[in-house]
Amino acid sequence: MPLEAQTLIEAQTPAEAQTPGAPAPRPCEATHATFREAADGSIAVTLIRAGRSGNNNYYPDAALREAAPLFEGARVFAKSDAEHIKGGGKDVRNLIGGVYGVQFVEGQGPDTGALTGTFRPISPSDPVVQKMTEAVQRGMQHLLGLSIDAMARTRPRREGRTVLREAVRFSRVNSVDLIVEPGAGGGLDRLSEAAADQPTDKEEKGEAMPLWKQRLLEAIQKTAPAQYAAINPETIGDDELVNLHEAVCGPLVPGDAGAAGAGSDNLREAKGEDAPVTRAELQMLQLRQKASQRIAASTLPGPAKQRLQTQFERAERFTEAEIDQAIKAEGEYLARFTESGSVRVPAFGAGSIEVGDRSVRVREMLDAFFNPAHKNHGAVSSLREAYIEITGDKRVTGRMEHCDMGRMAESLGVMREAIDSGTFASALGDSITRRMQEIYTGETDLDVWRKVATVGSVSDFRTQERIQIGGYGNLPAVAEKGEYTALSSPSDAKATYKVSKRGGTETVTLETIKNDDVNTVRRIPLELALAAKNTLYEFVFDFFKDNGNIYDGKALYHSDHGNLFTTALSADEFAKHRLAMLKQTRSGSGKRLAAAPRTLLIPFELQELAYNLFVRQQNLDKTFVQTINPEIIPVSYWTDDKDWVTVADTNRLPVLEVSFLDGRQEPELFVQDMPNVGSLFANDTITYKIRHIYGGAVLVDGYKGTTKAVVA
Fold this sequence. Notes:
The protein is α+β, with helices and mostly antiparallel strands.
C-alpha cells in the first residue's frame, strides 16, 4: 500500500544540519524519531511522498524525481487551510522562509519515495517559526504540516472503483504552505493540497460493520466457537449470518403470542454483551436488506449507489419510505447525469448526446452547436443554455463567483483547482477551432493551388534557401576497372524565402451569449476558415497574377525567360505556349526539358472558351490541341478578363514551393486576451486570435514550367 502522501516536519540535529550540496536526511515518521532544533533554526522537511494522497491524487516516483529542481527555493507561507485550497494568502506578511537542498529520496518499493529538503526561516524569532521549532522539540510535529501549491499535468489512474489523478509532470511550484491538515499535491493544473475531512478507510469504502451484525457474530462466537472459526466475519453475507445465528443460538424473535410476555421481559432485562437481538434490530436488518436491493435496482450512477449504501449502513434508524425518498432525492440531484457520468441537458431534449465522460459530452455538445452536419445539431440550438450548462452561471453574468466550479471542472475535463477565468473561453475556442479546421479542410475548391505548387515544411522563421538541382546531362560511360568521374555541378543559383504570420482577431461578447445570438456565433468558425483559406489561395495565385521578380532579379514572366506572350487564348496560341515550354532547356546540360503544360489558369470570363477548346465531346474528329486536354482552373479573384497562364506538372517541373511552419497546414486559434481576474470576459468580450504561418517562392528554373499571355 503506498505511503500516505502527506508532509511531515522534522528537525535536524546539529550533526544533520545540511550544507549546500549535501544530501537531505532520509525522512522518517514523526513518532519514530527524536528531533532537535539546528543551530541556525533550520528544519528538515518532507515536502511530498509518492503514492496516493488523501485527496485522491497519485504521485509516481518519476514525477517527484523530475520535479525536485522546481521545488528548490520554493517560498513557504503560513496559511489557513481554506486560503491554501483557494490559492490565496500569498502575502509578504505570511512569508516565513524557503525550502532548499531539495532532493528525491528513494523508497523501499515502487512509488514510495519522497521529496525532502531543508526549511530555512527568514527570521528564527518569527512566532510561527518558533511554534514550528517548539512542536519539533516536543515531538508534536504531527500537529503541523506542509502542503504544496503547484501546477502539473495529470492523467486518470484507476485503483479498484476509485479514479485518481496521477501527476505526470510538474510545470511550476507556486509555494509550499504551512497548514494544519496536509494532504499532498497532484493534478492537471493548479494543485492546492490540503486534506479535507476524510473518513477512515473502512468508512470510505462503506465497510463499517453494523451493530446488529457485530452482536450476531459475538453471540455465535460465544455459543459455537468452532463454527465461528469456520467463517470469515468480514465477508459473510447478511442472510448467511442470520441463518447461522438461528442454527446455533435459536430464533432471533420469539415466535408465538403465548410466549410474548415472557419473551418481552427477557428482552427488556437483557442489558449485557450477551443480550439477544431485539425485534427492532431485526426490523432494521430487514430494512437494510431492502435498502440494499432497492438501491442496487435503481438507475443511479455507481458512485451514487455506493454513497446511499454507505448512508443506510451507518444509519441507526430509518423507515422504508425514507429509502424511497433518498433514492428519489439522489436521482433528482443527478438528473443531469447518466450512470456513465455523461450529462443530459433537458433544454436540448431527451435524445441529446450521450458519451461516457462529462467533458467529452460537453465537447460533443459544443461541436454539435457549430456543425450543421452533426447528428445532434438540431438538439443543441441555444448558446445561452450551453453556457449555463458548462458554467452554472444561470444569469449569464460572466463573473467567476456566479459559476459552479465543480460543474466547470467536470464539464471541461480539468481539476477544480485548475478552473480560472480563461477556462470557458478556451473550451469555446476549442470547439470553434475544430469546426474551423473541418470547414478549412472541406473547402476543396480553394485547394486547387496545390495543383500548381509543391508543399513543404520548415522548422523556424529563418530564411530558407532552395538551390538548383540537376542539369548533369547524360551519365558518361565507365570502362572496365575505370574510375568514375565527377559530374559537372549546376550553377549556384538559389531561391530564398521565409515563412511569415498571417492572422487577425474575432470576438464573442457577453451580450452575444446573453441574447443567445446563435447565428452570429455559428458563423465565426465559417468566416475564420474562409478567411484563412482565401488568403492562402490568393497568396499562391498572386505569383502568377502579379508577375513579381524572382531569384534572378527578373520578373517571373520575362522575354529573357521565353515564357511571356501577348495574344489572346486560342487553339493556335495555346500550341505556341506548349511548344515554348517544351523547348525550355535544363541548366547545365542544355538539353530540352520537354515538359508540357498540365494546367490552364484563367479568369471566369475565359472559362467557356477554354472548355470549348479542350473539353467538347461532340467533336468526333478532335484537333491536336483538343487531345492535349489540360486541366482548366478558373481563378476566382482574377479580374483581368484576357490574361491566361499555363503551368507544367509540378511532379515533372516544380514551379513554386509553399512551406508551412512545422508542417501545420491548418490555421490555429488562440484566446487573445487574459480575462480580468474574477471574470470570464475581458471588457465583456472574449477575443480569439487566428494564426496561419507559411511562406513560398518560385524555385530555381521554376519559370521554365509556366507561361503567361498578358493581353492588352
